Structure prediction request, 199 residues.
Amino acid sequence: LLALASPVFVIMGISYYSMPAHMLLNLCFVALLLDGKPSRLFLAGVLGSFSLTLHNPLPHTLFALPWLLGLVWQVGRADGLRNLLAVIAGYLPLSIVLGIGWVLLRKEVSAHIGGGAPLDLPLPDYIIHLLSGSHFGLPDIDVIINRVLGMAKLVLWGAPGLVAFAILGAWKSWGDGTVRKLSYSALLTLIMYFFVPFD
Prediction:
Protein backbone atom coordinates (compact mmCIF):
# COMPACT_ATOMS: atom_id res chain seq x y z
CA LEU A 1 0.00 0.00 0.00
CA LEU A 2 2.84 2.40 0.75
CA ALA A 3 4.34 1.73 -2.67
CA LEU A 4 0.99 2.60 -4.18
CA ALA A 5 0.56 5.67 -1.97
CA SER A 6 3.79 7.42 -2.97
CA PRO A 7 2.97 7.96 -6.66
CA VAL A 8 -0.58 8.92 -5.72
CA PHE A 9 0.67 11.79 -3.56
CA VAL A 10 3.02 12.88 -6.37
CA ILE A 11 0.04 12.94 -8.73
CA MET A 12 -1.90 14.94 -6.14
CA GLY A 13 0.84 17.54 -6.11
CA ILE A 14 0.38 18.38 -9.80
CA SER A 15 -3.32 17.71 -10.25
CA TYR A 16 -6.54 19.45 -9.33
CA TYR A 17 -8.11 16.52 -7.44
CA SER A 18 -9.47 18.01 -4.23
CA MET A 19 -9.94 14.88 -2.13
CA PRO A 20 -6.65 12.97 -1.95
CA ALA A 21 -7.87 10.75 0.88
CA HIS A 22 -10.74 9.46 -1.27
CA MET A 23 -8.46 8.92 -4.23
CA LEU A 24 -5.83 7.09 -2.18
CA LEU A 25 -8.34 4.84 -0.43
CA ASN A 26 -10.18 4.08 -3.67
CA LEU A 27 -6.97 3.17 -5.51
CA CYS A 28 -5.85 0.95 -2.63
CA PHE A 29 -9.36 -0.57 -2.59
CA VAL A 30 -8.97 -1.51 -6.27
CA ALA A 31 -5.43 -2.83 -5.79
CA LEU A 32 -6.65 -5.14 -3.02
CA LEU A 33 -9.68 -6.28 -5.02
CA LEU A 34 -7.46 -7.15 -7.98
CA ASP A 35 -5.30 -9.35 -5.76
CA GLY A 36 -8.29 -11.64 -5.20
CA LYS A 37 -7.11 -13.36 -1.99
CA PRO A 38 -9.78 -13.45 0.74
CA SER A 39 -7.59 -11.57 3.23
CA ARG A 40 -6.95 -8.82 0.64
CA LEU A 41 -10.64 -8.67 -0.24
CA PHE A 42 -11.44 -8.23 3.45
CA LEU A 43 -8.90 -5.38 3.64
CA ALA A 44 -10.47 -3.84 0.53
CA GLY A 45 -13.77 -3.73 2.42
CA VAL A 46 -12.07 -2.16 5.45
CA LEU A 47 -10.50 0.56 3.28
CA GLY A 48 -13.83 0.99 1.54
CA SER A 49 -15.54 1.57 4.87
CA PHE A 50 -12.88 4.16 5.78
CA SER A 51 -13.61 5.93 2.51
CA LEU A 52 -17.37 5.70 3.08
CA THR A 53 -17.08 7.31 6.49
CA LEU A 54 -14.90 10.24 5.43
CA HIS A 55 -16.73 13.56 5.11
CA ASN A 56 -19.10 12.22 2.42
CA PRO A 57 -20.06 8.64 1.53
CA LEU A 58 -21.04 9.50 -2.05
CA PRO A 59 -17.56 9.55 -3.70
CA HIS A 60 -16.68 6.04 -2.56
CA THR A 61 -20.17 4.68 -3.15
CA LEU A 62 -20.11 5.84 -6.76
CA PHE A 63 -16.53 4.71 -7.31
CA ALA A 64 -17.03 1.27 -5.72
CA LEU A 65 -20.39 0.43 -7.29
CA PRO A 66 -19.02 -1.05 -10.58
CA TRP A 67 -16.47 -3.09 -8.62
CA LEU A 68 -19.04 -4.43 -6.17
CA LEU A 69 -21.47 -5.23 -8.97
CA GLY A 70 -18.63 -7.14 -10.63
CA LEU A 71 -18.28 -9.21 -7.45
CA VAL A 72 -22.03 -9.83 -7.33
CA TRP A 73 -21.92 -10.91 -10.98
CA GLN A 74 -19.31 -13.56 -10.09
CA VAL A 75 -21.28 -15.11 -7.21
CA GLY A 76 -22.24 -18.16 -9.31
CA ARG A 77 -18.61 -18.87 -10.20
CA ALA A 78 -16.04 -20.71 -8.10
CA ASP A 79 -15.14 -18.67 -5.00
CA GLY A 80 -17.48 -15.86 -6.11
CA LEU A 81 -19.70 -15.92 -3.03
CA ARG A 82 -16.67 -16.25 -0.73
CA ASN A 83 -15.08 -13.19 -2.36
CA LEU A 84 -18.23 -11.10 -2.03
CA LEU A 85 -18.69 -12.11 1.62
CA ALA A 86 -15.05 -11.26 2.38
CA VAL A 87 -15.52 -7.71 1.05
CA ILE A 88 -18.83 -7.29 2.90
CA ALA A 89 -17.22 -8.53 6.14
CA GLY A 90 -14.53 -5.86 5.71
CA TYR A 91 -17.09 -3.11 5.16
CA LEU A 92 -19.37 -3.98 8.09
CA PRO A 93 -17.49 -3.08 11.31
CA LEU A 94 -16.51 0.51 10.52
CA SER A 95 -19.62 1.16 8.47
CA ILE A 96 -21.78 0.20 11.44
CA VAL A 97 -19.71 2.00 14.08
CA LEU A 98 -18.88 5.16 12.14
CA GLY A 99 -21.78 5.25 9.71
CA ILE A 100 -24.81 4.27 11.76
CA GLY A 101 -23.11 5.42 14.96
CA TRP A 102 -22.71 8.90 13.48
CA VAL A 103 -26.42 9.03 12.59
CA LEU A 104 -27.34 7.98 16.13
CA LEU A 105 -25.03 10.63 17.58
CA ARG A 106 -26.42 13.27 15.24
CA LYS A 107 -29.97 12.35 16.27
CA GLU A 108 -29.02 12.58 19.94
CA VAL A 109 -27.28 15.93 19.53
CA SER A 110 -30.25 17.28 17.56
CA ALA A 111 -32.51 16.29 20.44
CA HIS A 112 -30.51 18.50 22.81
CA ILE A 113 -30.06 21.55 20.57
CA GLY A 114 -33.47 21.38 18.88
CA GLY A 115 -34.08 21.40 15.16
CA GLY A 116 -33.33 19.01 12.36
CA ALA A 117 -35.43 15.97 11.63
CA PRO A 118 -38.35 14.95 13.83
CA LEU A 119 -36.70 13.18 16.75
CA ASP A 120 -39.46 10.69 17.44
CA LEU A 121 -38.82 8.91 14.12
CA PRO A 122 -37.45 5.35 14.29
CA LEU A 123 -33.84 5.11 13.09
CA PRO A 124 -34.60 3.81 9.53
CA ASP A 125 -37.15 6.61 9.00
CA TYR A 126 -34.70 9.16 10.43
CA ILE A 127 -32.02 8.01 7.93
CA ILE A 128 -34.53 8.27 5.05
CA HIS A 129 -35.48 11.75 6.27
CA LEU A 130 -31.80 12.80 6.25
CA LEU A 131 -31.27 11.40 2.75
CA SER A 132 -34.44 12.92 1.31
CA GLY A 133 -33.40 16.48 2.07
CA SER A 134 -31.95 18.89 -0.45
CA HIS A 135 -28.84 16.74 -1.03
CA PHE A 136 -30.05 15.54 -4.46
CA GLY A 137 -32.22 16.97 -7.19
CA LEU A 138 -32.64 17.31 -10.91
CA PRO A 139 -29.90 19.47 -12.40
CA ASP A 140 -30.79 23.08 -13.15
CA ILE A 141 -28.80 25.50 -15.27
CA ASP A 142 -26.59 26.59 -12.33
CA VAL A 143 -25.59 23.01 -11.54
CA ILE A 144 -24.87 22.28 -15.21
CA ILE A 145 -22.71 25.41 -15.49
CA ASN A 146 -20.85 24.53 -12.27
CA ARG A 147 -20.15 20.97 -13.45
CA VAL A 148 -19.00 22.11 -16.91
CA LEU A 149 -16.74 24.75 -15.33
CA GLY A 150 -15.40 22.13 -12.92
CA MET A 151 -14.52 19.83 -15.82
CA ALA A 152 -12.94 22.75 -17.70
CA LYS A 153 -10.89 23.56 -14.62
CA LEU A 154 -9.77 19.93 -14.36
CA VAL A 155 -8.80 19.85 -18.05
CA LEU A 156 -7.05 23.24 -18.06
CA TRP A 157 -5.56 23.41 -14.58
CA GLY A 158 -4.95 19.80 -13.61
CA ALA A 159 -2.03 17.62 -14.57
CA PRO A 160 -1.22 18.36 -18.23
CA GLY A 161 -3.10 16.00 -20.52
CA LEU A 162 -4.66 14.06 -17.63
CA VAL A 163 -8.21 13.86 -19.00
CA ALA A 164 -7.13 13.37 -22.62
CA PHE A 165 -4.73 10.56 -21.69
CA ALA A 166 -7.35 8.94 -19.44
CA ILE A 167 -9.91 8.93 -22.26
CA LEU A 168 -7.36 7.70 -24.80
CA GLY A 169 -6.12 4.99 -22.42
CA ALA A 170 -9.66 3.79 -21.71
CA TRP A 171 -10.49 3.70 -25.42
CA LYS A 172 -7.30 1.80 -26.34
CA SER A 173 -7.61 -0.72 -23.48
CA TRP A 174 -11.39 -1.15 -23.32
CA GLY A 175 -11.04 -4.93 -23.56
CA ASP A 176 -9.40 -4.99 -20.11
CA GLY A 177 -12.04 -5.47 -17.38
CA THR A 178 -10.07 -3.36 -14.89
CA VAL A 179 -9.97 -0.43 -17.31
CA ARG A 180 -13.70 -0.77 -17.97
CA LYS A 181 -14.53 -0.75 -14.25
CA LEU A 182 -12.29 2.27 -13.62
CA SER A 183 -14.00 4.03 -16.54
CA TYR A 184 -17.45 3.15 -15.21
CA SER A 185 -16.41 4.47 -11.79
CA ALA A 186 -15.32 7.78 -13.30
CA LEU A 187 -18.40 8.14 -15.52
CA LEU A 188 -20.83 7.21 -12.76
CA THR A 189 -19.23 9.77 -10.44
CA LEU A 190 -19.31 12.48 -13.11
CA ILE A 191 -22.94 11.81 -14.05
CA MET A 192 -24.25 11.52 -10.48
CA TYR A 193 -22.68 14.81 -9.40
CA PHE A 194 -25.04 16.54 -11.83
CA PHE A 195 -27.76 15.53 -9.34
CA VAL A 196 -25.97 17.08 -6.36
CA PRO A 197 -26.92 20.77 -6.12
CA PHE A 198 -23.81 21.99 -4.25
CA ASP A 199 -20.99 23.67 -6.14
In short: Residues 80-113 form the longest helix (34 residues).
